[in-house]
Amino acid sequence: MRILLVIITLIVSLGAAKVVKIDEKFQTSDKCQACHMPIVEEWEKSQHSKSHYENDEYFRASIDYISKKTRKSLSSVKIECATCHNPRISVTGTSESYEIMVALNLDKGSAINKAVNSDSINEGINCVVCHNIDKIHTDRDESVRGMNRVTWMKSGIMAGPYKDANSPYHKTQYRDFMNEDSDKLCFVCHANDKSVKGLVFTNMLSEYKKGKKSCVDCHMGPRVEGAASTLPIDDGKVRKRDVRKHGFEGAHVFSMWKDALDVNLVQKKNNVIIEISNPQPHNIPSGFGARELIIDVTYKDGAKEMKNKRISLTTHYTRRGGKPTIPHAAEKASEDMSIPANGKKVFKLPNVKGAKSIKVELYYRLVNDEVRSILKLKDKIWAKESLITTKEIRLK
Ligand code: HEC
Ligand code: HEC
Ligand code: HEC
Ligand code: HEC
Ligand code: HEC
């Protein structure tokens, strides 16, 4: 057991990122409100702002589960996940002696516990995560992500999309990853997510089919005329700028699912061919494991429903001995059932005798039945079925 702990803590402390302390003036989003209120309000609704143990039930339950299964302290697991979920945390690893302190219940006042429970990280991925990055090291190994892939600026400088910005509150610096090369910023974290067993269960970077649009075009919306700051800086007037929204709307925003995929139905003799195509440049589902697409098929005779069938497209994860588990604890994953980027998947169903028409409804769900039950998730959001599209054809 001791040896195991030594190995585990050694792995945790390898490749630790350099921490740069953030002055309290810039640590939290309320410090930006006076001059960037609309942006702060949009970001508050985003999933980025919920990326913390206290604020996302699924994240919390996953951390608790990993801690139990790996027999590591809760704080150690939180620090591992912080690499991408809370990258401005002030500690980047734990030591063997810390695990022993936890076992003896002597860790309460430790620097590690203070860092993990600090108010400065409870906003998750906030303004000073993205806007305080100096460099993104795309030359580092592709498994190196989050805080280990970036170098921070000095506290008080904001990296932004404008070459001519000036603010009385903070210094500003232009960065290409805030403008023409912003995919690079998103891929700091949205790539190469792997389990504690080293299984890469999702990788948006490897599946990405870059077209004309960038991540920000779809998840922050188009650039429209507005203002970057509400502070009147041009002769008593607010400066006009082309700006995007900070909602980072994605899978948790149900209206985003409408028409995200297309369904086509064709009858071929005694079969119906269901073709699901994905016009987006990344797979769907993607980004995290155990997401799910549901195909509901209804055979009808006029208005009368004859037969229903449900097909679940999801990936199942197993640990040692083939037992079902969550993505982050998995040794193995079943076949990838996602619809590939700019591609399609085709399913063949036999006709039902006497059926005059067939209707197909396509839904998305954040967490499949298996993982919801393993983690005992309570919030209704995880099981909610968001309608993507429906299609109906007459049968000959
Ligand atoms: C996940 C990364 C991320 C987070 C978190 C984030 N921003 Fe941004 N922000 C961006 C990107 C990318 C742009 C550039 C958008 C573009 O292409 O014009 C941007 C642009 C801006 C701009 C320029 C005007 C505009 O809207 O385009 C301001 C000001 C700004 N952000 C402030 C903030 C504040 C304040 C917060 C916290 C409430 C915040 N940002 C959180 C990524 C982020
Ligand atoms: C006292 C007002 C004020 C406060 C407070 C303030 N800013 Fe700004 N900020 C500005 C002004 C003014 C600009 C320049 C706007 C322009 O040029 O259109 C600006 C520009 C920016 C930009 C764009 C920089 C660029 O080079 O493109 C970012 C990013 C930004 N602020 C982030 C923040 C964050 C994060 C906070 C909170 C920690 C914050 N600001 C607090 C006034 C403020
Ligand atoms: C510092 C790491 C990091 C960076 C940089 C980052 N993200 Fe994220 N993003 C996350 C994490 C972690 C989550 C999930 C948080 C949660 O659900 O608790 C997330 C969630 C999202 C979601 C919501 C997905 C859903 O399932 O609803 C979208 C959309 C998104 N990010 C887009 C972007 C875009 C676009 C960029 C680049 C401008 C970006 N992110 C940059 C880490 C990051
Ligand atoms: C052409 C538009 C488009 C582009 C470009 C795009 N996405 Fe998406 N993305 C979507 C749509 C549509 C969905 C499905 C509905 C939703 O979740 O918003 C989605 C879903 C997501 C999800 C949730 C996935 C899931 O299955 O749970 C994440 C995370 C995400 N995108 C991140 C990104 C990142 C990071 C990039 C850039 C590397 C990117 N997207 C580029 C349109 C786009
Ligand atoms: C390589 C960066 C990275 C690391 C490290 C990481 N995550 Fe994530 N995680 C993400 C991103 C990006 C998303 C958003 C993807 C999406 O929503 O499609 C996410 C989403 C999640 C979600 C889904 C949240 C939701 O609301 O749907 C859970 C749960 C989660 N992560 C758990 C963990 C746990 C537990 C750890 C540590 C053992 C961890 N993550 C480590 C990048 C990371």
From TrEMBL:
The lineage of its organism: Bacteria, Pseudomonadati, Campylobacterota, Epsilonproteobacteria, Campylobacterales. InterPro entries: Cyt_c-552/4 (IPR023155), Multihaem_cyt_sf (IPR036280), Multiheme_Cytochr_ET (IPR051829). This is Cytochrome c-552/4 domain-containing protein. PANTHER family: C-TYPE POLYHEME CYTOCHROME OMCC, DISSIMILATORY SULFITE REDUCTASE SIRA. Keywords: Signal. Residues 31-96 form the Cytochrome c-552/4 domain. It comes from Candidatus Sulfurimonas baltica. The keyword Coiled coil does not apply.
